[in-house]
Write a structure and sequence with these properties.
By secondary structure, the protein is of the alpha/beta class. It has helices at about 10-25, 35-45, 65-70, 90-95, 110-155, 160-170, 190-205, 235-245, 265-280, 285-295, 305-320, 325-340, 345-350, 355-360, 365-390, 395-405, 410-420, 425-435, 440-455, 460-465, 475-485, 490-500; strands at about 1-5, 30-35, 50-55, 80-85, 100-105, 180-185, 215, 220-225, 250-255, 260. A five-stranded parallel sheet has the order 2-1-3-4-5, with helices on both faces. Strands 6, 7, 8, 9 and 10 form a five-stranded antiparallel sheet that branches. Strand 1, helix 1 (about 10-25) and strand 2 form a beta-alpha-beta unit. Helix 5 crosses helix 6 (about 160-170), helix 10 (about 285-295) crosses helix 12 and helix 17 (about 410-420) crosses helix 18.
């Protein structure tokens, strides 16, 4: 409800407007009456009304002067001038003050209500614009926060590419191309909420002296300090802040200053105190329990928390051990993970895999990240299916047929005839049990095969199109992009770039 104030030195006018507002108007509420310009200025400052009906001719300062004095403090307040005389010079003075309208007395009830209707539309538009502006600001804040967290998190396992770090510089107005990473952890019996509070306090205090970007990751605070000023005394100031947070204790790791395009090296150095401590403290049985917990949770669908848990684990492993040792630990993890899934469903969905064969051939952490991200999504799909129900026999037969004949032209009706059922019934089975259509399932199956063939780098895209059973390379490329979010040629180029 909008607040209205009436300013007039005639009591009948005040009473008349007040009566109409109370009896006939629901969107406005009378918040005050003033009988002079001076009184109006004082009351507006206290009440901050949305709308003011202002008489011009009053004792002391007139309505025009009252608006001139109050307008800078209340730029969005709507003023409607009322006078008994139609004077062009008054209208000229009112225009620069942003007066909404100019009414001649006596003001009829109909005119009064019509003005209120116009003002309501105007105020509603302002409110909607303000809300949109707030939404835009909030969206920008959330987008920047998400991009900051993604950028910092990626530094734990790789260097950013040229576009990533240039985009980061531009988004956060960083005027240098070098920086240092620090890692902080509060140790002891302390809740996650308390840790976040402590880290926020550290960030707030250090930002008085240094530009800093931080993100909370697995109970730790990762902080990036761009070298926009000398970082020589940063260790001293940061340690001093941590000491003053007694009785809480902290582990602090810091990396050297590197170009922003090579910041993973700084993270590796900052992580060393934690890697040493974890190797000492985490027994073999404790590591097995942690792995068991990750396996129990990482197959949950659309659960970003458990995905972060998995990512935090493998980032720690790859930063704590040699690449080959870390690969071995990931083989153990995925072997345990696969043991939890339905073997029959794995076979039907063409996800029979040997973790050792697939993981040990990877040559870099980047390749591991791409492989694990893709396989986790596929395993989640398998888990989703096996959790719901077992397949009817006709669907199992149809899936087996597709698996064995995907390189040939496939038709729903022909496969249905093969097993003595109708095409509509088989189509319904795909929708009910797999959550997809017959065509989309075949497309996805062929695309998975195509990705594997692309990775071998033995065939052209055109050859792969025919190998997986499609006859139109252009159609295949469109389907590939729709499902994979990238064209086969771009994926091929990415693979070539990673080999260099």
């Amino acid at each position: 409800m909008y607040q209205v104030m009436i300013v007039d030195d005639e009591e009948p006018v005040l009473d008349s407007f007040a009566y109409i507002l109370k009896k006939d108007v629901s969107a406005f509420e009378l918040c005050g009456k003033a009988r002079s310009g001076t009184e109006a200025v004082s009351m507006i400052q206290n009440l901050a009304p949305d709308l003011v009906f202002m008489d011009i001719q009053m004792p002391g300062i007139d309505g025009i002067e009252a608006i001139r004095q109050i307008r800078p403090q209340f730029p969005n307040t709507v003023f409607i001038l009322a006078t008994a005389y139609e004077r062009f010079d008054i209208a000229q003075k009112a225009i620069p003050l942003g007066v909404f309208s100019y009414l001649l007395k006596p003001i009829s009830r109909k005119t009064f209500l019509e003005e209120l209707r116009k003002v309501k539309n105007h105020l509603d538009q302002l409110k909607n614009k303000d809300q949109r502006d707030l939404d835009d600001v909030q969206l920008l804040y959330e987008t920047k926060k998400e991009k900051k967290n993604h950028f910092l998190r990626s530094l734990m396992w790789r260097d950013p590419d040229d576009n990533e770090w240039k985009g980061f510089l531009q988004l956060f107005h960083i005027s240098c191309d070098r920086g240092s990473l620090y890692l902080i952890e509060s140790v002891g019996d302390i809740s996650e909420d308390m840790k976040i509070t402590l880290y926020e306090s550290v960030t707030e205090k250090i930002q008085y002296k240094y530009k800093c970007f931080g993100t909370f990751i697995a109970g730790r605070m990762l902080m990036l300090f761009p070298e926009e000023q000398s970082l020589n005394n940063l260790d001293y100031h940061l340690q001093n802040i941590l000491n003053k947070l007694s009785p809480y204790s902290f582990v602090l790791g810091h990396g050297g200053v590197y170009p922003l395009s090579s910041l993973h090296a700084s993270f590796s150095e900052a992580f060393q105190p934690f890697a040493i401590a974890e190797r000492k403290e985490e027994s073999y049985s404790a590591e097995r329990e942690r792995m068991q917990s990750i396996c129990n949770n990482m197959l949950k669908i659309d659960d970003s928390g458990t995905q972060n848990l998995f990512e935090d684990y493998w980032i720690q492993v790859f930063n704590s051990f040699s690449f080959s040792v870390a690969q071995g630990k990931m083989v153990a993890l995925f072997t345990r993970l696969l043991s939890k899934l339905d073997n029959h469903v794995l076979t039907v969905l063409d996800l029979n895999m040997d973790p050792a064969e697939e993981i040990m051939v990877l040559k870099s952490v980047e390749e591991w990240q791409q492989w694990s991200s893709n396989i986790i999504k596929r395993l989640q799909e398998v888990n989703k299916v096996s959790d719901k129900q077992s397949y009817p026999r006709p669907l199992i037969a149809a899936l087996s047929y597709i698996r064995e004949n995907y390189q040939k032209p496939l038709q729903l009706s022909l496969i249905a005839d093969e097993y003595g059922i109708t095409g509509s019934y088989l189509s319904r089975l795909f929708k009910e049990h797999l959550g997809t259509t017959f065509i989309d399932y075949i497309n996805r199956f062929r695309l998975n095969k195509a990705v594997i063939l692309l990775e071998t780098k033995k065939y052209s895209i055109k050859e792969i199109t025919y190998i997986v059973g499609d006859q139109d390379p252009n159609y295949f490329s469109r389907i590939f992009r729709r499902h994979m979010g990238i064209s086969p040629s771009d994926l091929e180029k990415e693979g070539i770039k990673n080999d260099k």
